[in-house]
Amino acid sequence: MTQITANTAIEESLGARAWRWVRAVNPVYLIALALLVWVGIRNPVFFQPDNFLTFLQRATPLMILTAGQVFVLVSGGFDLSVGSVVTSTVIIGAILANNDPNATWWVILALLLGGFIVGLVNGAVTTFLKVPSLIATLGMLLIAKGIGLFWSGGAPRGYLPDNFRMWGRGGIEGLFGLQDFPYAVIVLVVFGVGYWLLLHRLNYGRQLLALGDNPRAARLSGVNVNLVRISAFVICSMTAVVAGVLLGGRGGVSIEAGTGLEMQSIAAAVLGGTMLLGGRGSIPAAMTGALALELLFTLLNLMGLPKPLRDAVQGLIIIGAVAYTAYSTRRTR
Amino acid sequence: MKPLRFLSLLLIALLMLALVACGGTTTTTEEPVEEAAGEVEEAAGEAEEAVEETGEEVAEAGAGLGMEAAAVASEFFSQEELDNSIRLMDVTPEGPEGEPWNQALEPNFIDTTQYAKEGPYTFCFSNAGVNNPWRVVGYNTMEAEVELHPEIEEWIHVDAEGNDEKQIADIQDLVASGNCDILIVSPNTTLALTPAVEAACEVLPVVVFDRGVQTDCPATFVQPIGGYAFGYTGAKFLADNLPAGANVVALRILPGVDVLETRWAAAKQVFEEEDLNVVEVQFGDGNNDKVKTIITDAIQKHGQIDGVWMDAGATAVAAIEAFEDAGAPYPVINGEDQQDFLVKWQEEGLTAIAPTFPTFQWRTAVIAALKVLQGEQVPDPWRLPQPAVTQDNLEQFVQPGMPPLHYAMCGCETMPDFPERWGGTASE
């Protein structure tokens, strides 16, 4: 056995070996790297530490949102409600805080509680009422957006205080000799490492993956299927609240804050090799997928393509990337 | 099983990506600005104008399209109307001092005795939508105006939710009900609503405002000077406060909406005449986050941005914050009359101006309708003044306690239930 592989390896040309190595790596990393280089060529100052951190700050909400989405995706579901949870977080946060810096902490806690409840409802409806998650969360999309807009009377009211906004906007001055080390990047690292541990190193992650792969087998092997599935939705919704706090911090109050994020987060996760319908996914790869998506947006912006063309190019590139990912993950399966 | 599963996965992925790709545009067109009016025509056309302006590398990308686009763009543009708009900005309005909603520019009064009727009245209003902050402020103002007139016994409001088909059906239903003494229409799009308005005119008096229709049949048409004046005011202010050759970023919401195209057309002409260096023309979709990204990238790419022109102000504060976060000096900027921008302007002592598309026109529509039913003379068209917030009158329009996206040019400060009706608090 070893003899045979050794022989074939010797017979392979250098190019073929490199190609094999390339194929073994999750393609999302190569895609991200290629985009990174491309952006760097278009904009040489992009790699200056301050500029790059600004970019990471911008990419953080989508990256952690994608990580949260992965939990639901690997369990075999979808969460379409994250975009409107983000929007509602921003709108309701502004109403509750109403520019009072003392209110910030309880408002963030209240919002997280709201996210917890949304996730609980999503999970419970999917689990106990047997409504497909695509429909359950589609309903939640409308409910969350509706509540946010109704409460605000159709137009955002109130402001987010500065200490609420600092998470998405501010940073630690002078850390590592940098102008500003964004808080958002710290949040990114914490969530990245935490979710990686949770999904890939802890028993909970194994149960979740088993559930997504084959719910029946998971149940028979003693996994509390309902609890695990519901918790995945809760993690996703609460992550959406965190992303909303960051986005509201970065951009301020807007009813557009979360527009399109549900699709972007799912696309990013798929780009990172997460399997729709469950059973397979990786937090680092999915977050890199989100990074790649943000890089793509930046690149298309830098190229100055008119918007309609930009949308079309974006769609094409994403389809190509996902098709390639799907192709190569199928081969390595 | 395996190939099937792979196929379905790919299919779902494709579907989703198609959604991502169009998601951006479909969801944002809902928001389009306030007044964002008229027929959303071919988008491709105007978008090319952006290409033309954004510099060499881009010019390469779409040079061929540029030619074709220029032709389409001209459909949005009328030099005559632009010149007329600029002229109207200097015309002194006729009407009661300090009540711009009751004033008219160069009014051509028409006789309405044919519509005269005894009160009390039932007013019916077919609204294009209440789907953005500008329309929310406008509609709140309109309801307050209705309350000021006891002669209006019943007020029937139908919201078309930004949908042409629904609005056509709404108008037909209102007319068929026979309850309406007069119909006020704020059309969703110009071309689609014209036949419905024409049909309504045959049965009862109609007042159109905000966006127009292509027929003279309504009793009167209420409209401020329009998009050219908005774009011109902002661009001219930039030109007056910046040296020739200064770097300017132009931020637009989305292509293909006529009132927004006219704003840009007027600004573009000013920038060309005054030799400002427009380094970027970008569509921000009315999204704070996206606008912040555009400005941050522009500062990185061009080193220094001296001025920012916007075709609508909802994202002005995000644009200003991008300068703060980049540690760059504030630009000369135009926003709009939203509170958050005015507050920021005052706090930071910006060099700024806020052209408006005044929300007080929602009052005027009700006033005009009442005059028509009472057989009084009304101007047709009723051209409203379109004042700008400037450094001189800024203080008057900064209203603490009002929501960030409250449009200050509502003429609503003395109306019943101000400020609560508009989401504000009286405390401060």
CATH C-level of chain A: Mainly Alpha
CATH class of the largest domain in chain B: Alpha Beta
Would you identify the CATH architecture of chain A?
A: Orthogonal Bundle
Count of the domains of chain B: 2
The percent of residues in helical segments of chain A reads over 70%
The stretches of 5 or more residues of chain B where confidence is low (pLDDT under 50) are: 20-72
Largest beta sheet: strand ordering of chain B: 3-2-4-5-6-13
Overall, the morphology of chain A is globular
Helical stretch count of chain B? 14
Number of strands of chain B: 13
Number of helices of chain A: 15
SSE run of chain B: HHHHEEHEHEHEEHEHEHEHEHEHEEH
- Structural class of chain B, please? alpha/beta
- Characterize the main sheet of chain A: 2 strands, antiparallel
Describe the model.
The complex is a heterodimer of chains A (333) and B (428). Chain A is mainly α and 333 residues long. Chain A has a single domain, classed as ABC transporter involved in vitamin B12 uptake, BtuC (Orthogonal Bundle). Chain A has helices at 2-11, 14-24, 27-42, 49-74, 82-97, 104-128, 133-152, 162-169, 183-200, 203-213, 215-220, 225-251, 261-271, 283-303, 307-332, and strands spanning 171-173, 180-182. Chain A has a two-stranded antiparallel sheet with strand order 1-2. The longest helix of chain A has 27 residues, at 225-251. Chain A is globular and about 65 Å long. The mean pLDDT of chain A is 86. Chain B is α/β, with parallel strands linked by helices. Chain B folds into two domains: 40-62 and 78-95 and 227-356 and 386-409, Rossmann fold (3-Layer(aba) Sandwich); 106-224 and 358-384, Response regulator (Rossmann fold), CATH 3.40.50. Chain B is 46% helix and 14% strand. Chain B is built from 14 helices and 13 strands. Chain B has a six-stranded parallel β-sheet, with helices on both faces. Chain B has a five-stranded parallel β-sheet with strand order 8-7-9-10-11, with helices on both faces. In chain B, helix 9 (258-273) links the parallel strand 7 (247-252) and strand 8. In chain B, helix 2 crosses helix 3 (56-76) and helix 6 packs parallel to helix 7. Chain B is globular, with a radius of gyration of 23 Å. The termini of chain B are far apart. Mean pLDDT of chain B is 82; it is low at 20-72. The interface between A and B is large, with 57 and 73 residues.
